[in-house]
Amino acid sequence: MTTFLKANWENIIMANYEIAPEILLPYLPNGVTLDLYEGKAYVSLVGFMFKKTKIFGVPIPYLGTFEEINLRFYVQRIEGNTIKRGVVFINETIPYRIVAWMANKLYKEHYTVVPTKHFMHQMGGKQQVKFEWLLDKKWNHILVEAETASKKMAAKSFEEFIYEHYYGYTKINEQNTEEYRLQHPSWEVNHISSYDIRCDFSAMYGDAFAVLNKTNPTAVFMAKGSSVKVDWKRTPIKFTDEGN
Q: Can you give the pTM of this predicted structure?
């Protein structure tokens, strides 16, 4: 199968917030349902490094390394006896217009462009990782202090629920959805000792998410990351009100 995108995703921070399911329903693509953890719906504010980016195997000169910030939630699709667990992006933010244009044009995604930067520092067995993005002349950020050593995620843990989703779903319109597949190994995670988050959710993602401005995350995780592939093939899933 042809690979559309290949890149390294590194230091993947996930700040995870419990949210009322009804807030997510307008963004829910047809043909999938919310994927709940212990009966609760979650969104994740994500920051990570995009490195060594290739499109159809061709490196992107000068623009192949950048920060990405996104807000996503979790869904599942039942296909026969298979449960496909995936994510839906509310918005993905990067610093380069041409890269955002390409993703939006070719993949019908929801990329926007704002200035971004990052800071990383290691000392002994500890590290600081910080991602920042400029919005309305104010720098927002997500910062963690964590151990440099990483370990496998525990089976059936909240960390595993957050990270182990290998499909993406894009809402084309009220009836039609597209499905695509991500490929990467199960990631190892770093223990986080402290974090600091400053994000204007309503300005960044719309008034529907203003409640997150006054909500503390249920948990904050960081994964070491790996090389990631995104398949070129996108499967159209067409539905009517009566089903597929």
A: 0.93
